[in-house]
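Write out a record, focusing on structure:
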Amino acid sequence: MKNTWLYIRTAIVKGFLLLLPVILVVFLIGKLWMLVHGIVLKFSHPLGINRPGGYLIAIAITTLVFLIVCLLAGFIANVAAVSKTKAWLENNVLRFMPGYYFIKTMFQEKLGDDAADTSAVVYIQGGWQPCLLIEEGDNGWNVVYVPMAPAFTSGRTYVVEKHKVKKINIPIDKMKDVVERFGKGLSKYAE
């Protein structure tokens, strides 16, 4: 009974840590949405949007303003000082948030960012294993993360020779599914 309780407690904590970044992102987007929506509603009365059906117009305007804010933030992200601040934040704050890099890589992949090309297989302990290519070194060595099935977020980090790593064309979310199914489906991505 004690082992069952420990297993359930551990599963709850792991589940919470897995969901925490997602909940945090949804919460922050919701707060930003409410801020923009509140500003739009303040200007809705002088514009005559307070009539029946006007609330839907306010929501449409809020959506448009929200997307414009995101667009401007995207433009600002290319400024060197902002990039340095973002890198500092990621390295000193966000790295402590479980799952942050995984979520970031998934978004980068969905947006077609080449930096997110991380899926690979690595030759370790006499066999090829699915992994994420974390860093490609100029000195002939690579850093890889090998997830342990069935928990994609648990695994080991290895420094291996470059020739022992082969990139494969599989999105990170599919790689996660493959690992959670103990490798089932990986063979169709192998060359």
